[in-house]
Predict the structure.
Amino acid sequence: MEKPNSRGPDPARGQPRNDPASSSVEESGIRWASLVERIRSGDESSVEELYTTFARGIRYYLSRHLGAQELDDKVHDTFLIVLQAIQNGSLREPERLMGFVRTIVRRQVAAFIDETVQTRKDQADIEVGARVPDSGSNPERRVIDDEKSQIMY
């Protein structure tokens, strides 16, 4: 005998489950898909809505990972990447807009960190290479020069 499902209907068997979490996820997916469609159709207020939601959501994440320097620029750069992806159709699943945004933000952070590391390496190389040896003679050099002089004369 089969044990009854205590959580209600089973979606695997074609029976919808009345799960509040899954319905809120579906509702937010529909909301994001609607927003993407309005942006693609040229609705300026939708772009503003995206920016307001976007800026508030990622500002904290970026400030934690990158610090306060250039925070506004990074938020704006990331927003432009997302907006261009929406407008040119690169966003394949509009209902997963926030997952796409999260991926872009993480890539921006990774690129910033890579760039910072490379800059530091380059600066370290310059500092090491910039050392100029003392042009004055050292004891070893003097002995070598003296021996050369004795051999030649």
Summary: The CA atoms of residues 76 and 101 lie 13 Å apart. Confidence is low (pLDDT under 50) at residues 1-8, 10-17. Helices lie at 20-40, 44-66, 71-87, 97-129, 139-152. Residues 97-129 form the longest helix (33 residues).
